[in-house]
UniProtKB/TrEMBL annotation:
<dbReference type="GO" id="GO:0071555">
    <property type="term" value="P:cell wall organization"/>
</dbReference>
<feature type="binding site">
    <location>
        <position position="444"/>
    </location>
    <ligand>
        <name>meso-2,6-diaminopimelate</name>
    </ligand>
</feature>
<dbReference type="GO" id="GO:0008360">
    <property type="term" value="P:regulation of cell shape"/>
</dbReference>
<keyword id="KW-0132">Cell division</keyword>
<comment type="pathway">
    <text>Cell wall biogenesis; peptidoglycan biosynthesis.</text>
</comment>
<feature type="compositionally biased region" description="Pro residues">
    <location>
        <begin position="43"/>
        <end position="54"/>
    </location>
</feature>
<dbReference type="InterPro" id="IPR013221">
    <property type="entry name" value="Mur_ligase_cen"/>
</dbReference>
<dbReference type="InterPro" id="IPR035911">
    <property type="entry name" value="MurE/MurF_N"/>
</dbReference>
<dbReference type="InterPro" id="IPR036615">
    <property type="entry name" value="Mur_ligase_C_dom_sf"/>
</dbReference>
<keyword id="KW-0436">Ligase</keyword>
<comment type="function">
    <text>Catalyzes the addition of meso-diaminopimelic acid to the nucleotide precursor UDP-N-acetylmuramoyl-L-alanyl-D-glutamate (UMAG) in the biosynthesis of bacterial cell-wall peptidoglycan.</text>
</comment>
<feature type="region of interest" description="Disordered">
    <location>
        <begin position="555"/>
        <end position="599"/>
    </location>
</feature>
<feature type="binding site">
    <location>
        <position position="250"/>
    </location>
    <ligand>
        <name>UDP-N-acetyl-alpha-D-muramoyl-L-alanyl-D-glutamate</name>
    </ligand>
</feature>
<feature type="binding site">
    <location>
        <position position="528"/>
    </location>
    <ligand>
        <name>meso-2,6-diaminopimelate</name>
    </ligand>
</feature>
<dbReference type="Pfam" id="PF01225">
    <property type="entry name" value="Mur_ligase"/>
</dbReference>
<dbReference type="GO" id="GO:0005524">
    <property type="term" value="F:ATP binding"/>
</dbReference>
<feature type="binding site">
    <location>
        <begin position="169"/>
        <end position="175"/>
    </location>
    <ligand>
        <name>ATP</name>
    </ligand>
</feature>
Length: 599
């Protein structure tokens, strides 16, 4: 490891494992078998236990196409499910064979047929290959665009029986979803119903936790999840809605009772060509086809624009206390573990509220949650009480306690604005120095790397630049861009800048500098339990690695001082040992180039 003034980095030549591929050459059509990868959760997405069969003829009429002929082998069949993944087909499913970047879904139609598919939904390009299976084929020009509504029909329109609150924006979606779900839980205590949560970290059906592959599930999985929730007694759900989900049709078939807009800042610009396109994608949620009511951040520039362009009634909120907002925060008191404030709403409604996570931006998240719940018809004080009871959000300003005399925090911040907000928030509750660790993801938006390096250098006493998920990119090339951003910060404005490619070693470097009253802040991966290097995902949990490093450092200090407790601990306490996954946080990073997490 070297400081910025040393002018050199360590050189490493780690063994690289080739990125797995299905085949080296183009295969014959219709004969491919999708192969599960080692980093995938073998647990299949949940399905309702008692689906009601939907006749193919009725589904064809919904699609506006001719029904399969009655004399075809499966012409009179009925569907009990639908999936876009040939590996996940169950008997009675429609297999949605979609066009892809490398293969067409119709290439996997034989596999779907062998697993019990009763029909194939595809486009004209896939029709011939799908028909070769002998299954009825439902051909439409845009199968992805029809898949969501078809899934909703197959599962009996489950969303109509749920109070649905969707949250979108660049930052704060996950935290706001957890806070809203906390308010929903408090309200649900009155009738004994359950609540649901769908988002980046996990999905919840009551108290059951499920691994999330992406921020918003694909339409087929989402509608099945709604059906399972309904079947198990869930009556309300809080859900993150990404711009990818809106553009790619993942929320087709959904109409949200309340749609929440937190903010918009530069992000996902490898998926969206510019900020206007990004905003237009978010705007889709606030159309009559997608929602019934809107809750919008009055303090955000794009939120103010959205107030004018929304097609549905808008209720505004302002954490800055703007008097023209429908709901505003007053008497805000920011503390080291959270904030208190008064939420003032229409008709002189006033409730004392708590944002259970630190930072002014979490006052905005909590106020957004109170406003959304009030618009949904929940008593504001009940909503505020439920929000206050939320124990925390995995990987969002999550504290790590291992007996150290300084604050240790892990956060998911992985964009310039979020990095700055977290650092400002931590500064306010830190008496000493801030030692921060940050990397940037590979195969994702490269434009933010320079700004992220600059933000870390400007706002930290020690800025340790390291790897995030380099994926197929050279980690040093990513670090070079971050370092260039740090170098643009005038020397008198920046802290000490260190470069360490190995993430565990980078965390150890930050901990080594920590003294009583300081803060160690590890940014970028948050709740994630894996690190993708050269296409291979290995176990890595920032929280566990940080804890292990702190414990190892404290043991070494006691041993050096000749104190008890300095003995060597088992391998599980070493920084390089595989992390122990928390039951509440079972998410792995998704490797899709079009993934909405986009890190």
């Amino acid at each position: 490891m070297r400081t910025i003034t040393d002018g050199a980095w360590n050189r490493r030549d780690p063994a690289r494992t080739p990125r797995p591929s299905l085949r080296d050459t183009e295969p014959p059509p219709g004969t491919l078998t999708a192969v599960p990868q080692a980093d995938q959760n073998p647990t299949a997405p949940p399905r309702p236990e008692q689906p009601r069969p939907a006749p193919l003829a009725e589904l064809a009429r919904q699609l506006g196409i001719e029904a399969p002929a009655a004399d075809e082998p499966a012409g009179g069949a009925a569907a009990t499910g639908i999936t876009h993944d040939s590996r996940a087909v169950r008997p009675g499913d429609i297999y949605a064979a979609l066009p892809g970047a490398r293969f067409h879904g119709a290439d996997f139609a034989n596999q779907a047929a062998s697993l019990g598919a009763v029909a194939v939904l595809t486009d004209p390009a896939g029709t011939e290959r799908a028909a070769a299976t002998g299954l009825p084929v439902l051909t439409v020009p845009d199968p992805r665009g029809r898949m969501g509504a078809l899934a909703a029909r197959i599962y009996g329109e489950p969303g109509e029986d749920l109070l649905q609150i969707g949250i979108t924006g660049t930052s704060g979606k996950t935290t706001t979803a957890y806070l809203i779900e906390g308010g929903l839980r408090k309200a649900a205590e009155k009738d004994g119903s359950l609540t649901g949560l769908i988002g980046t970290v996990e999905s919840r059906i009551g108290d059951e936790r499920l691994k999330s592959e992406r921020t918003t599930p694909e339409a087929t999985e989402l509608q099945a999840l709604f059906a399972v929730m309904r079947e198990r007694g869930v009556r309300s759900v809080a859900m993150e809605v990404s711009s990818h989900a809106l553009v790619l049709g993942r929320v087709d078939g959904c109409v949200f009772d309340v749609a929440v807009f937190n903010n918009l800042s530069p992000e996902h610009l490898d998926f969206h060509p510019d900020m206007e396109d990004y905003f237009r994608a978010k705007l889709q949620l606030f159309t009559k086809a997608r929602s019934r009511a809107a809750v919008v951040n009055f303090d955000d520039e794009y939120g103010f624009r959205l107030i004018r362009e929304s097609q549905v009634p808008v209720t505004t909120f302002s954490a800055e206390g703007h008097p023209d907002a429908d709901w505003r925060a007053e008497d805000v008191e920011v503390g080291p573990t959270g904030s208190t404030f008064t939420a003032v709403g229409p008709e002189n409604v006033s409730v004392r509220a708590v944002a259970p996570l630190p930072g002014p931006f979490n006052v905005a998240n909590a106020l957004a949650a109170i406003t959304a719940l009030a618009v949904a018809g929940i008593d504001p004080q009940t909503a505020a009480d439920g929000i206050a009871a939320v124990p925390g959000v995995p990987g969002r300003l999550e504290r790590v306690q291992a007996g150290q005399p300084y604050l240790a925090v892990v956060d998911y911040a992985h964009k310039p604005d979020a990095v700055e907000s977290v650092l400002y928030a931590v500064r306010k509750v830190t008496d000493g120095a801030v030692h921060a660790v940050l990397g940037c993801g590979g195969d994702r938006d490269p434009h933010k790397r320079n700004a992220m390096g600059a933000a870390l250098a400007r706002l930290s006493d020690t800025a340790v630049l390291t790897s995030d998920n380099p994926r197929t990119e050279d980690p040093l090339a990513i670090l070079a861009t971050m370092l260039a951003g740090a170098a643009e910060v005038p020397a008198y404005e920046r802290g000490t800048v260190l470069v360490e490619e190995d993430r565990a070693a980078a965390i150890a470097a930050a901990v080594a500098r920590a003294e009583p009253g300081d803060t160690v802040l590890v940014l970028g991966k948050g709740h994630e339990l894996g690190q993708d290097i050269a296409g291979v995902v290995r176990p890595f949990d920032d929280r566990q690695v940080l804890r292990d490093v702190i414990e190892a450092t404290r043991r070494a200090a006691r041993q050096a001082a000749g104190q008890p407790g300095g003995q060597q601990q088992p391998d599980a306490a070493r920084p390089d040992a595989p992390p122990v996954a928390s039951p509440a946080n079972t998410s792995q990073p998704d490797d899709s180039q079009a993934d909405d997490q986009n890190r």
